[in-house]
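ABC transporter ATP-binding protein: structure tokens wanted.
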Amino acid sequence: MTMLRIENLHATVGETEILRGLSLEVGAGEVHAIMGPNGAGKSTLAYVLGGRPGYEVTAGSVTFQGHDLLALEPHERAAAGLFLGFQYPVEIPGVSNVQFLREALNAQRSARNEALLSGGDFLKLAREKAGLLKLDMDMLKRPVNVGFSGGEKKRAEMVQMGILDPAFAVLDETDSGLDIDALRTVGEGINAIMRKPDKGVLLITHYQRLLDYVKPDKVHVLAKGRIVTSGGPELARQLETEGYEAVAA
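Answer:
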């Protein structure tokens, strides 16, 4: 079953066209990695899928689980099961992680006509997912990402993903700012949460190192706004040794 189908996608930021005919298909149970040089359009693709304002789709289509993703508002995309992990998670002073996550989860459950979680049930779920990412529960009582290191922000975001339990995750350079131990923990967390037959992952990264833990089914090279070549996990290793020019020329 196809979870995400992107066909001939064109998108602009301001007056500049960034995506220039990008096509991609991700099936259920699959992890696809997108790699490419700076300025290729990787983060733009993530923001377009998430519905970030200022990123205008000028042509093409995106179908998510059989529905027109581009017709949905950002909160509707989230409720439909799409999760966007940011390269630089933002800080939200004055709002605790626990409060933020419970509100986010219950907002999505309400949109799906599901029963809301009580405070006790939510804390039980939060402890389980925090343990998975080796994040102390005391961290979740603090304001969202305030005073967190880069690695703590990424682990907290993966806890968020675990709690929301999306059908599909778009992870934009989740390995950015992670040391070796945190990289392993985050990679194992992604596998535990998303490596399931009814889920899918689009993993955007510059480097092979995260792919040692989250092994992709397919690797795509994005250059100048479109996919220029695709292959198996061996393609990522080739890029690591030869660089992008060898395959994106």
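The longest strand covers residues 2-13. The chain has a mean pLDDT of 93.

Cheers.
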